[in-house]
Amino acid sequence: MIIRPHNPSALTLLFSLKGSIIPAIWRKVLFTVLISSAVVAIHGTLFHFKVVLTATPFTLWGLTLAIFLGFRNTVAYQRFWEARTLWGELLIVSRNLTRQTLSLLPTLAPAQRAALGHGLTAFAYVLKHTLRREATAPETLARLDEHARHAVLGHQNPPSALLGLLGKRYQEAARQAGAGEQVQVAIDQQFTRLSYVLGGCERIKNTPIPYPYILLLHRTVHIYCFLLPFCLIDSIGWFTPVAVCILAYTFFGLDALGDQIADPFDLQPNDLPLNAMCRGIEIAVQELLDEPAAQPEEPVDGVLM
Asked: Which residue of 114, 147, 174, 289 lies most exposed, with the fewest beta carbons within 10 A?
């Protein structure tokens, strides 16, 4: 996730490359500008045939393309925001379960409370690794005992296996502490919310925007930008590459931005900072347990991962 500077100046907003989509699209924009420069150099003539394209079809085509890009980016942002909401729910439930362990199960030994809290922290990290299709990190496995590590490494869906194990352990701890049925139900409701978070993240990760729709947009954007110089050459002449550059930046940028946020769990600069979110959950649990808290994740080159 891009960390924006506070109160940026107009010059920063106009010329800053950090946090811009330019690094992802500059090759495409440059190639389009080179094509438009070549079209200007040959005066829109191909093999002694003058290519005549009027502004009317490009106006209608550009309007339609902008509408479709706006719709796709709206859908992509909805996926991004739903993912952010689910991870906010994960933080809330982790706090709730840790608080309930402290207040509703007061007879538990401190070591047992800490083990339960560290299991919640490990669940967040295991979920992050699964969503990013990474191998489970050794520091994540170090938060678990041998039985829990086997549950994580020996199943196709490590977060689901770990969630089931944590649910059993919390209920066993509640019964050992002599908690009543209402307390056990309250704890189980929190695990139901965790299961909802897991299912929602899996739905977003495993259900991409339909590929034919993305393919159609990619092709249409490229064809539009490549043919645009033939439309502008007779009206604005040598200013054509500048106009094409601005339009290509707009369309290619919207296209690339939609691609990045459509999978909010990836490692692109505009995706969710799952590392920082996991660290935030870890800090929240540690502070509730009166343990020394870890340091928050810091952005690197203006990007928080």
From this structure: 147
